Amino acid sequence: MTATLVLCRHGQSDWNLKNLFTGWRDPGLTEKGVAEAHEAGRRLKALGLKADIAFTSVLSRAQHTTKIILGELGQDGLETICDQALNERDYGDLSGLNKDEARVKFGEEQVHIWRRSYDVPPPGGESLKDTAARVLPYYIHRIQPQVMAGKTVLVGAHGNSLRALIMALEGLTGEEIVKRELDTGVPIVYRLNPDTTIASKQELKG
Predict the structure, then answer these.
(1) Is the pLDDT of residue 1 over 80?
(2) Per the annotation, does 88 bind a ligand?
(3) I need a surface site. Which of 81, 106, 163, 182 has the fewest CB within 10 A?
């Protein structure tokens, strides 16, 4: 039995382009982001992949990316489940701030701690540990059973919600996962063994 899990961060958003903390705010994709989503779909199609079900967050940039990918796969009508458990990390009071301006306001060291520590949240927001606390139960109860039933499952989400999944899948520590960079619009294809361990991993970069 082949169990396939495809993770893809959304294409570039308008706020990615403007270097703003985004979190649960809901900007759309840029033209580049739309192109990245189309390319992601074409790369998955070139592998001969067809999704059986898709999951995404309630934020439009992830939903739009997922819809474009499915369109490239010829699967416009595929069942897609949206849930805020897969939302990006909530940046709280940093949301909407330019990252450079935030460094001036709060100090470079403090902003670095908020961005790159595992368990220190920004004011009013979530740490990556907090994000994992909502993402992982959802994965275990809703997504993983679909994968382990032999289905090909597409998850279109965000940098930090996907980091939380990757941390669990690859057995990484909090310190290791915060250093992992995820490019926008680049699918990662995992083939899983019957015991849920990774048989293979393929990152579909250009």
Answers:
(1) no
(2) yes
(3) 81
Which CATH number characterizes residue 129's domain? 3.40.50.1240
- Residue 87 and residue 58 in contact, taking contact as beta carbons nearer than 8 Å: yes
- Cα–Cα distance for residue pair 192/5, rounded to 1 Å: 8
Can you give the pTM of this predicted structure?
A: 0.96
91 labelled as ligand-binding? yes
113: tokens are: 């701690």
- Answer yes or no: is 22 a known binding residue: yes
Mean pLDDT, residues 159-181 = 95
Residue 59's closest CA among 41, 77, 38, 85? 85
How many domains does the chain divide into?
A: 1
Cα 100 to the center of its chain, rounded Å: 24
Catalytic residues: 10, 88
Q: What percent of the chain is predicted at pLDDT more than 70? A: 100
Strand partners, 191: 4, 200
The amino acid at 34: V
| pLDDT digits 0-9 by tens, 39-56 | 999 999 999 999 999 999
- What single-letter amino acid sits at 16? N
Give kind and range of the element (H or E) at residue 106: helix 99-106
Provide the domain limits for residue 40.
3-203
